[in-house]
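Appendix B. One record, verbatim.
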Amino acid sequence: YIHIPFCVQKCLYCDFLSAPAGEGGRERYVEALCREIVREGKKYADYTVRTIYIGGGTPVTLEASQLDRLLSLVEDTFSEAISGKGLLEYTVEAGRPDGITQEKLEVLRRHGISRISINPQTMQQRTLDRIGRRHTVEDVVRSFWLARELGFDNINMDLIAGLPGENAADMQDTLRQIEALHPDSLTVHALAIKRAAQMGQEKRAEGGLEHWEISRMIRDSGDAAKRMGMVPYYLYRQKNIAGNFENVGYAKADKAGIYNILIMEEKQTIVACGAGSISKRVYPDGRIERCENVKDVSQYIERIGEMIERKRVLLED
């Protein structure tokens, strides 16, 4: 797992680790991240890498040249795995359409990225404006078809049920527009308000929706996924989730997110690089130990040697 902790602007509901995408900070971060990847790659050259997942934040807030540099390093470092000796999935969570450009998608395509996410969360413009997303519905459609034209045949999209001001009719309209795009997988989240999110700090309600209405959104999402030829393949629940519902991933045949499955089952070791990322070691007896990189971007850059040492202690033998 490789974490890119930058976003153009943080969504009001989001509590994931992200920071403003300033140019100087991004470059220094990429330098530190590359140093960490190189050190990890030297240790695991003889291991089989099943999946590589680059998440965020929004990874495409990096410039095309920075993405190219990062992916080139990953290729050089894990060349045996990427050449076809075990790698099952190579994902970049492109995320918000306001960071996606043709040049960046061409970089991803050139480096053999097999799966990307383009995440609208909703196709209602007034909701996008309300929750702090600067892109338009048209940007979502443009980014999706651009990715298709460039040859991406495994595109995931994320939606959130229970966003402020939305009702079941809004979700039905969003699903209608998503069906017209026909992505390869769909992840449907019930809104979860965490304390670290701006909504949580302001103690905003989840839009005042009744339990039955969120239930309708979830049920309609499952029906839409079925119409698109998808089946559910993973499920998890978060704290403070609207209506005590779940997050469900749906996918077409052979398009399930393998990294998602592995991280949920907790049966495979994960080496994680980047600020706030958590490495996980799974022992043969099922015991699990973890170590976490510091979350603050500047601290991560300054203490990168310490982050490398933490993983050495966890994973050395």
